[in-house]
Design goal:
Largest sheet: 6 strands, mixed
CATH architecture: 3-Layer(aba) Sandwich
Order of helices and strands: HEEHEHEEHEHEHEEHEE
CATH class: Alpha Beta
Helix content: 25-40%
Strand content: 25-35%
Number of domains: 1
Distance between the termini: 47 Å
Strand order of the largest sheet: 5-4-3-6-7-8
Number of strands: 11
Structural class: alpha/beta
Radius of gyration: 17 Å
C-alpha cells in the first residue's frame, strides 16, 4: 500500500524556513516550493488516486483548479473521474488586507460550468486563497462548487472557510501549520526580514521588506 501521509508528501517538495507573506496576506514561517511536484507523475500518482477516490462520492461533473499546480491536479483528477476539466487563473493581487487575489475562468469555460456540480482542487491548501478565489468565480458563473480537495491541507484556515460555506473538504493528508495575521506575527515582532512570495520575482532577488 502506498504511503500518502503528510510526511510522504513533504518528501516530494522543497521547503524553506523564513518569514513569508503569502498570497492570502497571512504571514508564515514555512514556504513550500510546489513547482516540481508534477514533474514525475509516478511519484504523485498515489496521492492523485486517493484524492479522486475521496471526491468520487460527491458526484461532480467537472473538476476545476487554479493555475498552476491546482490546474495540473484538476486535469489528472478529472481524467480519473471521467468528468470535465477547467481551470482558473490569477489576474490580480491587491495591496493590503487579506484574500485580495482574484481568479477568473477563461471565457471558453465560463458557460460550460453553469449548472454543474464542481469539485475544486489544489495541490496544497493552507489559508485557501486560490481556492476561495476559484469558489467565488465558479459561483459567479452559475456553477455549484460542492467540494474542495487538496493533496495536503495545512492548518485549518482554508478548511474552516469552506466548512462555513457548507462545502465539503477532502484531504489526502493533513498537517499543522503556523499562520499569522500581519499584526499578530511573531516574526514581524522579532524584526525578521519579510519575503513576499505572492509577488513574482527573479531567482535570487526576492521581494523583501522590513
Amino acid at each position: 500500500m502506498s504511503d500518502t501521509s503528510a510526511a510522504a508528501f513533504l518528501t516530494l517538495v522543497a521547503g524553506r524556513r523564513g518569514h513569508f507573506r503569502l498570497e492570502s496576506g497571512h504571514h508564515a514561517g514555512l514556504w513550500l516550493d510546489l513547482d516540481p511536484l508534477f514533474a514525475e507523475p509516478r511519484r504523485i500518482a498515489p496521492f492523485v488516486a486517493a484524492l479522486a477516490g475521496a471526491i468520487r462520492p460527491h458526484a461532480v461533473s467537472a473538476v476545476c483548479g487554479p493555475l498552476l499546480g491546482g490546474a495540473f491536479l484538476a486535469q489528472l483528477v478529472a481524467h480519473a473521474l471521467d468528468v470535465e476539466f477547467c481551470f482558473t487563473e490569477r489576474v490580480a493581487v491587491g495591496d493590503g488586507g487579506l484574500y485580495r487575489a482574484r481568479y477568473l475562468l477563461p471565457p471558453a469555460f465560463a458557460e460550460r460550468v453553469r449548472g454543474k456540480r464542481v469539485a475544486m482542487v489544489d495541490d496544497v491548501m493552507s489559508a485557501g486563497s486560490a481556492l476561495r478565489g476559484t469558489f467565488a468565480e465558479l459561483r459567479a458563473h452559475g456553477a455549484e462548487p460542492v467540494v474542495a480537495g487538496a493533496l495536503l491541507v495545512l492548518g485549518t484556515a482554508g478548511a474552516d472557510y469552506f466548512a462555513e460555506h457548507r462545502v465539503a473538504v477532502e484531504a489526502v493528508a493533513r498537517d499543522r501549520y503556523d499562520l499569522w495575521l500581519p499584526d499578530a506575527c511573531p516574526l514581524c515582532a522579532s524584526g525578521a526580514l519579510l519575503e513576499n512570495v505572492a509577488a513574482p520575482h527573479q531567482p535570487d532577488s526576492p521581494d523583501v521588506t522590513t
